Amino acid sequence: GAVVSQHPSWVICKSGTSVKIECRSLDFQATTMFWYRQFPKQSLMLMATSNEGSKATYEQGVEKDKFLINHASLTLSTLTVTSAHPEDSSFYICSAENWDGGGTIYFGEGSWLTVV
Amino acid sequence: GQQVMQIPQYQHVQEGEDFTTYCNSSTTLSNIQWYKQRPGGHPVFLIQLVKSGEVKKQKRLTFQFGEAKKNSSLHITATQTTDVGTYFCAGPRSNDYKLSFGAGTTVTVRA
Fold first, then answer.
1. Residue B103 is nearest to which of A34, A43, A49, comparing CB atoms?
2. Are B55 and B63 in contact (CB under 8 A)?
3. pLDDT tens across A50-109, in order?
4. DSSP letters of A18-71?
5. Cβ contact A109–B41 (<8 Å)
Protein backbone atom coordinates (compact mmCIF):
# COMPACT_ATOMS: atom_id res chain seq x y z
CA GLY A 1 0.00 0.00 0.00
CA ALA A 2 0.89 3.67 -0.15
CA VAL A 3 3.64 4.68 2.24
CA VAL A 4 4.97 7.99 3.43
CA SER A 5 8.45 7.88 4.87
CA GLN A 6 9.89 10.44 7.21
CA HIS A 7 13.52 10.89 8.17
CA PRO A 8 15.05 11.14 10.67
CA SER A 9 12.86 9.47 13.25
CA TRP A 10 14.81 11.00 16.10
CA VAL A 11 17.13 13.96 16.17
CA ILE A 12 18.86 15.83 18.94
CA CYS A 13 20.44 19.14 18.13
CA LYS A 14 22.06 22.00 19.94
CA SER A 15 20.24 25.24 20.48
CA GLY A 16 20.88 27.65 17.61
CA THR A 17 21.47 25.02 14.95
CA SER A 18 19.17 24.01 12.10
CA VAL A 19 17.59 20.65 11.49
CA LYS A 20 16.12 19.27 8.28
CA ILE A 21 13.35 16.68 8.24
CA GLU A 22 12.42 14.86 5.05
CA CYS A 23 9.05 13.53 4.02
CA ARG A 24 8.80 11.18 1.04
CA SER A 25 5.86 9.54 -0.64
CA LEU A 26 7.33 6.21 -1.66
CA ASP A 27 4.91 4.88 -4.24
CA PHE A 28 2.71 7.75 -5.22
CA GLN A 29 3.07 11.36 -6.26
CA ALA A 30 1.91 14.08 -3.93
CA THR A 31 1.56 17.63 -5.18
CA THR A 32 0.58 18.64 -1.69
CA MET A 33 2.00 17.53 1.62
CA PHE A 34 1.15 18.75 5.08
CA TRP A 35 3.35 19.37 8.08
CA TYR A 36 1.98 18.99 11.59
CA ARG A 37 3.31 19.45 15.05
CA GLN A 38 2.12 17.30 17.93
CA PHE A 39 2.88 17.92 21.58
CA PRO A 40 2.68 14.98 23.99
CA LYS A 41 -0.88 13.79 24.53
CA GLN A 42 -2.25 16.50 22.28
CA SER A 43 -3.78 16.68 18.86
CA LEU A 44 -2.13 17.36 15.52
CA MET A 45 -1.72 21.03 14.74
CA LEU A 46 -1.32 21.91 11.10
CA MET A 47 1.74 24.07 10.61
CA ALA A 48 1.90 24.49 6.86
CA THR A 49 0.94 23.12 3.50
CA SER A 50 3.76 22.18 1.19
CA ASN A 51 3.01 22.74 -2.49
CA GLU A 52 5.16 21.20 -5.18
CA GLY A 53 6.71 23.88 -7.35
CA SER A 54 5.40 26.82 -5.34
CA LYS A 55 5.67 28.45 -1.96
CA ALA A 56 4.32 26.76 1.11
CA THR A 57 1.31 28.23 2.84
CA TYR A 58 1.61 28.65 6.57
CA GLU A 59 -1.01 28.56 9.28
CA GLN A 60 -1.58 31.63 11.35
CA GLY A 61 1.05 32.00 14.03
CA VAL A 62 3.64 29.79 12.34
CA GLU A 63 6.83 31.64 11.44
CA LYS A 64 7.73 30.90 7.84
CA ASP A 65 11.32 32.06 8.31
CA LYS A 66 11.77 29.66 11.19
CA PHE A 67 10.11 26.64 9.61
CA LEU A 68 11.37 26.53 6.05
CA ILE A 69 9.53 24.22 3.72
CA ASN A 70 10.71 23.04 0.35
CA HIS A 71 8.74 20.78 -1.97
CA ALA A 72 11.25 20.17 -4.70
CA SER A 73 9.63 17.16 -6.32
CA LEU A 74 6.35 15.28 -6.41
CA THR A 75 7.65 12.82 -3.83
CA LEU A 76 9.71 14.92 -1.45
CA SER A 77 9.02 17.74 0.98
CA THR A 78 11.47 19.00 3.57
CA LEU A 79 10.95 20.96 6.76
CA THR A 80 13.93 22.83 8.15
CA VAL A 81 13.72 24.14 11.68
CA THR A 82 16.14 27.04 11.70
CA SER A 83 17.93 28.39 14.76
CA ALA A 84 16.26 25.77 16.88
CA HIS A 85 15.44 26.44 20.52
CA PRO A 86 14.29 24.10 23.27
CA GLU A 87 10.69 25.22 22.80
CA ASP A 88 10.85 23.82 19.26
CA SER A 89 11.25 20.33 20.72
CA SER A 90 8.26 18.35 19.53
CA PHE A 91 6.97 15.56 17.35
CA TYR A 92 6.81 16.72 13.74
CA ILE A 93 4.76 14.68 11.31
CA CYS A 94 3.97 14.99 7.65
CA SER A 95 1.13 13.67 5.55
CA ALA A 96 0.42 13.29 1.87
CA GLU A 97 -2.77 12.67 -0.03
CA ASN A 98 -2.85 9.85 -2.53
CA TRP A 99 -5.31 11.03 -5.14
CA ASP A 100 -4.84 7.87 -7.18
CA GLY A 101 -5.82 5.95 -4.08
CA GLY A 102 -9.14 7.67 -3.64
CA GLY A 103 -7.79 10.62 -1.74
CA THR A 104 -6.67 8.68 1.30
CA ILE A 105 -4.25 10.58 3.51
CA TYR A 106 -1.13 8.82 4.67
CA PHE A 107 1.03 10.01 7.51
CA GLY A 108 4.77 9.65 7.85
CA GLU A 109 6.20 7.93 10.88
CA GLY A 110 6.99 11.27 12.49
CA SER A 111 10.19 12.86 13.69
CA TRP A 112 11.02 13.51 17.32
CA LEU A 113 13.09 16.67 17.66
CA THR A 114 14.86 17.47 20.90
CA VAL A 115 16.74 20.73 21.15
CA VAL A 116 19.26 20.92 23.97
CA GLY B 1 -13.20 29.35 13.10
CA GLN B 2 -14.27 25.78 12.67
CA GLN B 3 -13.70 23.54 15.65
CA VAL B 4 -13.83 19.78 15.90
CA MET B 5 -14.39 18.58 19.43
CA GLN B 6 -14.03 15.07 20.75
CA ILE B 7 -15.19 13.46 23.95
CA PRO B 8 -14.14 11.85 26.13
CA GLN B 9 -10.48 12.77 26.17
CA TYR B 10 -9.63 9.55 27.96
CA GLN B 11 -11.42 6.23 27.98
CA HIS B 12 -10.41 3.44 30.34
CA VAL B 13 -12.10 0.24 29.30
CA GLN B 14 -12.26 -3.23 30.74
CA GLU B 15 -11.26 -5.79 28.16
CA GLY B 16 -14.35 -7.20 26.54
CA GLU B 17 -16.53 -4.16 27.18
CA ASP B 18 -17.89 -1.72 24.62
CA PHE B 19 -17.34 2.01 24.41
CA THR B 20 -18.13 4.97 22.22
CA THR B 21 -16.21 8.13 21.40
CA TYR B 22 -17.94 11.18 20.01
CA CYS B 23 -16.94 13.92 17.62
CA ASN B 24 -18.76 17.21 17.12
CA SER B 25 -18.14 20.01 14.67
CA SER B 26 -19.23 23.62 14.97
CA THR B 27 -20.02 23.59 11.25
CA THR B 28 -21.47 21.14 8.75
CA LEU B 29 -18.82 18.84 7.34
CA SER B 30 -18.49 17.56 3.80
CA ASN B 31 -16.98 14.41 5.26
CA ILE B 32 -15.43 13.13 8.43
CA GLN B 33 -12.40 10.94 8.82
CA TRP B 34 -11.17 8.79 11.67
CA TYR B 35 -7.57 7.96 12.46
CA LYS B 36 -5.88 5.76 15.04
CA GLN B 37 -2.52 6.54 16.57
CA ARG B 38 -0.87 3.82 18.60
CA PRO B 39 1.42 4.92 21.46
CA GLY B 40 4.67 6.14 19.96
CA GLY B 41 3.31 5.77 16.45
CA HIS B 42 1.80 7.88 13.74
CA PRO B 43 -1.85 8.37 12.77
CA VAL B 44 -3.27 5.72 10.50
CA PHE B 45 -6.35 6.32 8.40
CA LEU B 46 -9.32 4.21 9.45
CA ILE B 47 -12.30 5.41 7.48
CA GLN B 48 -14.07 8.29 5.80
CA LEU B 49 -17.79 8.99 6.05
CA VAL B 50 -19.46 11.20 3.50
CA LYS B 51 -23.21 10.72 3.50
CA SER B 52 -25.68 12.02 6.04
CA GLY B 53 -26.57 9.24 8.48
CA GLU B 54 -23.94 6.94 7.04
CA VAL B 55 -22.90 3.93 9.08
CA LYS B 56 -19.84 1.85 8.30
CA LYS B 57 -18.40 -1.14 10.10
CA GLN B 58 -14.90 -2.50 10.30
CA LYS B 59 -15.03 -5.72 12.30
CA ARG B 60 -15.66 -4.54 15.89
CA LEU B 61 -15.59 -0.85 14.97
CA THR B 62 -18.77 0.97 13.94
CA PHE B 63 -18.56 4.49 12.58
CA GLN B 64 -21.56 6.77 12.22
CA PHE B 65 -22.06 10.17 10.61
CA GLY B 66 -24.90 12.26 11.97
CA GLU B 67 -27.91 13.28 9.95
CA ALA B 68 -26.88 16.92 10.09
CA LYS B 69 -23.27 16.01 9.20
CA LYS B 70 -22.01 17.85 12.26
CA ASN B 71 -21.26 14.91 14.48
CA SER B 72 -19.86 11.44 14.31
CA SER B 73 -19.22 8.52 16.60
CA LEU B 74 -16.96 5.52 16.82
CA HIS B 75 -18.26 2.54 18.74
CA ILE B 76 -15.97 -0.36 19.60
CA THR B 77 -17.43 -3.62 20.81
CA ALA B 78 -15.66 -6.27 22.87
CA THR B 79 -12.60 -4.10 23.40
CA GLN B 80 -9.25 -5.84 23.03
CA THR B 81 -5.76 -4.80 24.09
CA THR B 82 -4.99 -4.15 20.43
CA ASP B 83 -7.51 -1.29 20.53
CA VAL B 84 -5.17 0.75 22.74
CA GLY B 85 -4.27 4.10 21.22
CA THR B 86 -5.65 7.52 20.46
CA TYR B 87 -8.54 7.87 18.06
CA PHE B 88 -8.83 11.15 16.20
CA CYS B 89 -11.66 12.44 14.12
CA ALA B 90 -10.94 15.06 11.48
CA GLY B 91 -13.06 17.17 9.20
CA PRO B 92 -12.22 19.47 6.30
CA ARG B 93 -12.19 23.16 7.08
CA SER B 94 -14.93 24.97 5.25
CA ASN B 95 -12.65 27.67 3.85
CA ASP B 96 -9.82 25.56 2.44
CA TYR B 97 -10.72 21.89 3.03
CA LYS B 98 -7.59 21.19 5.01
CA LEU B 99 -8.16 18.77 7.83
CA SER B 100 -8.97 20.01 11.31
CA PHE B 101 -8.34 17.35 13.94
CA GLY B 102 -10.19 16.75 17.14
CA ALA B 103 -8.26 16.48 20.38
CA GLY B 104 -8.49 12.72 20.27
CA THR B 105 -9.75 10.04 22.63
CA THR B 106 -6.97 8.06 24.28
CA VAL B 107 -8.05 4.51 25.03
CA THR B 108 -6.46 2.26 27.61
CA VAL B 109 -7.60 -1.29 28.26
CA ARG B 110 -7.61 -3.20 31.53
CA ALA B 111 -6.97 -6.88 30.99
1. A43
2. yes
3. 988 889 999 999 999 999 999 989 999 999 999 999 999 999 999 998 877 667 889 999
4. -EEEEEEESSS--SEEEEEEE-TTS-EEEEEEEETTS--EE-TT--TTTEEEEE
5. yes
